[in-house]
Amino acid sequence: VAVNKPRFEQGAPGFGKAVMVEEGTTNLLAENVSSVETDTAGFATYRGTETISRDVTQFCHGVASLKVVTPGTQQYEGIILAAGARPAASPGLPYSCQVRVKGTPGTVLNIAIRAMSSVGGWVGTSPRINITLDGTWQLLKVENYIPPENTAYIDFQLTTGTTVQATTFYYDCGQLEQK
What we know:
Number of helices: 1
Order of helices and strands: HEEEEEEEEEEE
Largest sheet: 6 strands, antiparallel
Distance between the termini: 22 Å
Number of strands: 11
């Protein structure tokens, strides 16, 4: 529903005959990780070859985004959450993640939720969701991933996937939630 527009129109068919309950949500990401307004704390590069920085020329919300530059030397170049920034998780409960991304048209990115053990070891990964960038801010999300037993923390992986490509993309408006 658009801002300042009524959800229901008086006299419209069905008005007053239903109850709408909106879903409550809690973003498990720290505020700066969600919106990158202060610095790059909370992020890590996945392969160690990428460069990340806070950028104030491109943003979807607020005044900054995370700029990610990949050299195109291997698959799955991109970002993850740093070990100390990963939220606690409960095995058997569903989690969803969504982010806004922008980059060079034709760049292929994917997102996945990763389940991590209490010592930081990998436990499992959700199905990967791909998107081909078109130069505008686009929504990329993975929904209803249920982490396996031994999961203590979750994070997300935003990468170039199996496509080896030197590219630059921007991340903003991250949300990770238990559904």
